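testing teh design pipeline on a random one, pls ignore if ur not involved
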């Protein structure tokens, strides 16, 4: 009997312990805004009784108050009442000029329109928590900041935070098509239900706005950079205006990708030459039309003369001619142009990594003040690892905007876990050495030297109509980290992972530590099993899913993986030093010098810059060939370890999300092995070398790997 009782007690206590995690089936829709109940500790005791705001609340302030009520209801069990007076224990929302008497808001003026201050204070003898800002949007960001602080374990009583974004434009780029397919989208259909807009405004748009506002994202480009002319016609402008109305209270402006040849294709001009007066006049009238419908429209994003897209070069004009013409049309309305530097043209046989710099560097200083040049993080194309783009720091007279890809086109789509925080951080912290005392990419973006110039960051969104928004639970973290880095490019990827995991999965310290550890290792694992040691662009044709290092039959040389690895009987790697393409010369002398010598080039970038013999002696003491295989093996081992670590988390994570993640990790292990085996089989066929001692023989023949095809892969275009 006693034994039974003991067992029963154990079961009961187990149920009690596990109850919170299993009580609600979670499907991920709530993202990091779950607001689960806080433990009955200090935090909950300091429950806010009221939320006070003096004055008439704008839609933005209403959004802030609603979010605070929703969050506090979830975390403390009670939604505070809203009052205009300040009671003890209140959360006080206050703008500069209307701050509670006796409250000192030191430094508030320096925080700008979007910054905020969170402070627990004593006002007229009453303990309150103040969210202070200069503008309504600062109050909304402050409300989210307060909820995040609470959710991640900071009590209200000791709050003392000030925060302001370091970049002005923090923008998502949706590569969403008008038929609701998404280029490189792995999260289902586009969330924009274009067909039903403008009449039907789905609730999900509001949740989208809340999630983005919680990170400080303040702009969204709604459509694919490979744009269509129709988006700029009246029926579509009405749809865009409906979305702008929904997003406006959350501080999010809408932008559109504009197709260069729009007026010509709509047969409203006879040319698309940027210097033709009829073309400039058309764009001016079009801008006027858009702003009549959307007074705070953000502006245009343009992909021109890249991958077959039309552009000013079709008329022997420069990128600056094109960008400035559009900028002139938008300037009266305070709109901007984000002109992409992702260009490479068929006629240019030179190293593809050099083309953006070659085309854009000479245009430094030639762009209108409301133009930003948007540069991908690396010079090729969103690879698992790339050195930072040589344009950063090299165009001091032009505002440069970072473009990261959140959707993981080259990192296993939404099927592999790869937390991108470390990738973002690595690029942002890279020293361009364009100043004697150093100049990191983050500093280039922040551009503090030039005061009023535009600054910004763009992230190619991984958002879709999938119930998890991002195609998988862990891919939400990439959206989250992107937003946090856009707010603070000098931020810390581990800290962001910790915040995210705490809000999204569990406040249990053991769970958080494990999850963060998995996240922090995950991207390097992908690098190792796909493209170790600086290899790049080895993915199979079209869809980029899975290995294709053997591919050499595409329309142009620089679409072929063989172009990038240049492996032959003697060695492997792309010589970008002076003896090769000399892409290195595009970097500042300090960087170029370090990477010119394989001995001083970090292993991670070795084959990006050097072509080396298979028996090259690596710092590890192994030959290059042995090291390469070891890296592939390390990647597989890491993928297996991710899976094993997740298994241990089973008691700490709710069932549905546990299972959904487990399935993806199983897939990742399987595909990591496939990547490793296919790559090793191929490189072995080229090098003719025996497998290093102890290395496992690939499970299939090279021909079998080559025969794997995916005509209907997701995100294909
Ligand atoms: C590449 C994608 C392609 C995009 C292009 C771009 O494969 O689908 O259109 O980038 O950024 O990564 O324009």
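output:
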């Amino acid at each position: 009997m006693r034994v039974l009782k003991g067992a029963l007690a154990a079961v009961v206590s187990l149920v009690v312990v596990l109850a919170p995690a299993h009580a609600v089936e979670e499907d991920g829709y709530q993202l990091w805004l779950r607001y689960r109940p806080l433990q009955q500790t200090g935090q909950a005791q300091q429950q806010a009784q009221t939320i006070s705001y003096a004055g008439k609340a704008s839609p933005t302030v209403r959004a802030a108050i609603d979010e605070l009520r929703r969050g506090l209801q979830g975390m403390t069990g009670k939604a505070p009442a809203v009052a205009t007076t300040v009671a003890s224990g209140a959360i006080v929302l206050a703008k500069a000029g209307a701050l509670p008497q006796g409250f000192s808001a030191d430094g508030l003026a320096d925080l700008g329109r979007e910054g905020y201050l969170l402070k627990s204070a004593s006002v007229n003898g009453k303990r309150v928590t103040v969210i202070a800002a200069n503008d309504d949007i600062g109050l909304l960001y402050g409300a989210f900041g307060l909820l995040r602080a609470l959710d991640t374990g900071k009590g209200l009583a000791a709050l003392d935070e000030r925060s302001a974004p370091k970049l002005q434009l923090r923008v998502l780029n949706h590569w969403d098509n008008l038929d609701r397919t998404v280029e490189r989208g792995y999260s289902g259909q586009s969330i924009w239900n274009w067909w039903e807009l403008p009449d039907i405004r789905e609730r999900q748009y509001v949740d989208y706005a809340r999630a983005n506002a919680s990170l400080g994202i303040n702009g969204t480009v709604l459509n694919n950079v490979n744009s269509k002319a129709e988006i700029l016609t009246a029926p579509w402008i009405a749809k865009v205006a409906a979305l702008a109305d929904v997003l406006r209270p959350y501080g999010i402006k809408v932008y559109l990708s504009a197709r260069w040849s729009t007026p010509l294709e709509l047969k409203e001009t006879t040319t698309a030459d940027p210097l033709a007066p009829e073309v400039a006049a058309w764009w001016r009238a079009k801008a006027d039309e858009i702003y009549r419908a959307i007074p705070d429209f953000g502006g245009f994003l343009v992909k021109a003369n890249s991958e077959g897209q039309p552009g000013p070069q079709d008329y022997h004009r420069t990128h600056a001619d094109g960008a400035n013409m559009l900028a002139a049309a938008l300037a009266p309305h305070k709109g901007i142009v984000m002109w992409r530097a992702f260009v490479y043209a068929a006629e240019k046989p030179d190293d593809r990594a050099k083309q953006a710099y070659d085309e854009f560097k000479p245009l430094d200083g030639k762009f209108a003040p409301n133009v930003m040049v948007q540069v991908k993080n690396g010079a090729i194309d969103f690879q698992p690892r790339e050195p930072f783009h040589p344009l950063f720091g090299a165009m001091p007279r032009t505002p440069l905007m970072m473009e990261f890809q959140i959707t993981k086109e080259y990192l296993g789509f939404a099927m592999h876990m790869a937390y991108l925080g470390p990738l973002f951080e690595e690029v942002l912290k890279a020293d361009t050495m364009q100043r004697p005392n150093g100049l990191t990419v983050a500093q280039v973006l922040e551009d503090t030297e030039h005061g009023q110039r535009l600054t910004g960051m763009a992230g190619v969104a991984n958002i879709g109509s999938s119930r998890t928004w991002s195609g998988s639970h862990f891919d939400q973290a990439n959206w989250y980290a992107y937003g946090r880095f856009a707010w603070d490019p000098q931020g810390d990827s581990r800290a962001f992972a910790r915040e995210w995991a705490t809000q999204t999965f569990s406040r249990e310290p053991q769970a958080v530590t494990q999850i963060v550890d998995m996240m922090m290792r995950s991207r390097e694992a992908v690098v190792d099993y796909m493209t170790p040691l600086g290899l790049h662009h080895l993915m199979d044709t079209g869809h980029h899913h899975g290995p294709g290092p053997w591919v050499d039959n595409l329309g142009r040389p620089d679409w072929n993986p063989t172009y990038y690895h240049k492996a032959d009987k003697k060695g492997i790697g792309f010589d970008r030093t002076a003896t090769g393409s000399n892409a290195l010369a595009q970097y500042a002398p300090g960087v170029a010098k370090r990477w010119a010598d394989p001995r001083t080039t970090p292993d991670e970038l070795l084959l990006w810059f050097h072509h080396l013999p298979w028996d090259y002696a690596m710092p590890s003491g192994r030959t290059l060939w042995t090291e390469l295989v070891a890296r592939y093996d390390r990647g597989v081992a890491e993928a297996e370890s991710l899976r094993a670590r997740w298994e241990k988390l089973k008691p700490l994570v709710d069932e549905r999300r546990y299972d959904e993640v487990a399935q993806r990790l199983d897939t990742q292990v399987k595909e990591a092995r496939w990547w490793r085996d296919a790559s090793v089989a191929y490189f072995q066929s080229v090098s003719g070398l025996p497998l290093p001692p102890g290395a496992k023989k690939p499970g299939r023949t090279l021909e079998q790997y080559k025969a794997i095809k995916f005509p209907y892969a997701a995100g294909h275009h």
